[in-house]
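Lay summary. Proteins are chains of building blocks that fold into shapes, and those shapes determine what they do. In this project we predict the shape from the chain. Here is one chain we studied, written as its sequence of building blocks.
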Amino acid sequence: MNGKPVWDVGLLESAAHRPSAAMFGEEAYPDVLDKAAALLQSLAINRPLFDGNRRTAWLSCVTFLAMNGVDLRPDIDAAEQLVVAVASGEADEVELIAQALREPVVAEV
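And here is the predicted shape, written in a compact code that computers can read:
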């Protein structure tokens, strides 16, 4: 580690833009939970930071949802299991990750 927290700025930017991905005018992730799942997956798998990628992926996901009016209150153990599964590639489909995020949703505005 060279004293800088970001290992690859391109991977970080790519992850940040993935929720808004579109092709031929169609959103790749039309649902806010799909967008959050894509963000979580990109940060957890691509590891753009030297350290804390899983924590950052989870916090980014929860913050993204909160900023979009979704109140997520997951069981901490279930959240950890989800992030570990995503980071390891076990949970490798955005739709499945989004489904796991739907379970602890308290309210959507």
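What the prediction tells us: The chain has a mean pLDDT of 87.
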